[in-house]
Amino acid sequence: MNWIQEILCEPSVVQTVIVLATVSAVGIYLGKIKIFGISLGVTFVFFAGIVASHFGVRVNRDMLAFAQNFGLMVFIYTLGLQVGPGFLSSFKTGGIKLNMLSLGVVLAGTLMALGLCLITNVPLSDMMGLLSGAVTNTPMLGAAQQALMQVDPENTKGVTDMALACAVTYPLGVIGVILAIITLRRFSGTGKGKQNRDENASKTYVAEFLVSNPAIFGKSIKEAMRLTDRHFVISRLWRNGKVCIPTSETRLMKGDQLLVVSVRADVEKATALFGEQEDGDWNKEGIDWNAIDSQLISRRILVTRNRINGVKLGSLKLRNLYGVNITRINRAGIDLLASPDLHLQVGDKLTIVGEANAVANAGKILGDEAKRLNKPNLLAIFVGLAVGVFIGAIPFSIPGMSTPVKLGIAGGPIIVGILMGAFGPRIHLTTYTTESANLMMREFGLVLYLAGLGLDSGEHFFETVFRTEGLVWIAIGFALAIVPVLLVGWIASRFFKVDYAHNVGMLCGSMANPMALNYANTTVTGDEPSVAYATVYPLSIFVRVITAQLILLFAA
Fold first, then answer.
1. Separation of alpha carbons 254 and 240, rounded Å
2. Is the pLDDT of residue 230 over 80?
3. How many beta carbons lie within 10 A of that of residue 339, not counting itself?
4. What is the CA 289 to chain-centroid distance, rounded?
5. Which of the two residues, 203 and 442, has the higher pLDDT score?
6. Are 488 and 104 in contact (CB under 8 A)?
7. At a CB cut-off of 8 Å and minimum separation 6, what does 288 contact?
8. Can you list the domains of the chain with their CATH numbers?
9. Is residue 165 within 8 Å of 468, Cβ to Cβ?
10. Would you give the DSSP letter of residue 57?
């Protein structure tokens, strides 16, 4: 039986893999447990590793360091890929206010942490750990640890204490945001305000118009569109009881009826251009678009051909070649207005209207092979990881700093991931992965990182918590978790008139707290909290990762 003891107890490659897998499995199982309807999810892996380390489980240090760092790189890069496509769009009209408020939460928490660092004499590295836990942001912790190791490679105790501080305050971060949401609900109400109307105004909208404006009689659609600064898609034209797919050269005549796709905010402009809007509501789910006319069908076509990736929609000339009309494009669950300048991406769903044969031919050009999307694009994963780690290792000299700045294995991959997700198709690099595949890689990387982090830092966890220093950490962590959220939440509601649903979603996103978001979703009937969360999450997590590094590097 000595071989069993040798495999399980003596540090080696095999033993390290067994321990990491066991700790991960136990943590994931415990993550399913809910207390008062709240669960810490995969964060239990962190605590499972801490408990194992506390009871004397030891593993190969080199293997542990590799697993921890590799898991962090995979998690944060795939996170960048996920948020990349929506990163720039989050700065559009409806998202600017929410993003600025989320940055207010980040700024308030950071300044508060620095102030408490001076008042309480808690070391700056420990304070960054406390802040990482209070805002439930493990990528921030990883970035801060990398920055500390860059400044002081021998300070392994500081790196360990930073992880311990994060572990102490992480549960408080979850609970604190939920308590803040409960408090905000008491004086905010759950009604939908101006922000909700702005959100609806940016969604695609279908309306029927009667051509009665003499200024466009006899003009081609191309000529008529020059009279407005807005973009509309004329899906169908009825004339003398017959329906057709109009082209840019189609002449508009008095009495024509047009089915127009735009955004709701542009309906007034469309009415001024065409003449008058009909009463029919074309946005109801019950309308069968395929039954509007037997000669025309409406189908959703998937972009699956790599050579279409990054190509401008207008350059395909589908309307002129096949007589079809593209009315809407769905990307990652968001409906986009079809514009000639819109760059297509693999995975886009195009709503195409036309005769059956014409739609089928257009589908052949675009691909429309759903099975091809199930095949992972590993090239983008490995290229991105290599480039991200390389960029993270480049030293940048900043005037006034004795030590060059490096983005590290957290900052480099997240920047490259965001850029690849946002602009990869522009250089014809397919970065699309299915939502389930991306989630699988993110969760695997995060679990591996948390398991390694717990095993690495858990030896002195309990003796640290149950002493005066630990009690101070708990008080600071709770303050960092709840005060910035309450302050900015109150300002958003009182002075910026952000409704409750978008307010709490923004606060959860700025604190990178999906557990609190789950609770927030139970307090409203719509999906506004999730929309606001997705709007601010990319910028918030990016800023937190970078600022954690910069603070420690500037303080060196």
1. 11
2. no
3. 14
4. 32
5. 442
6. yes
7. none
8. 202-372 (3.30.70.1450)
9. no
10. -
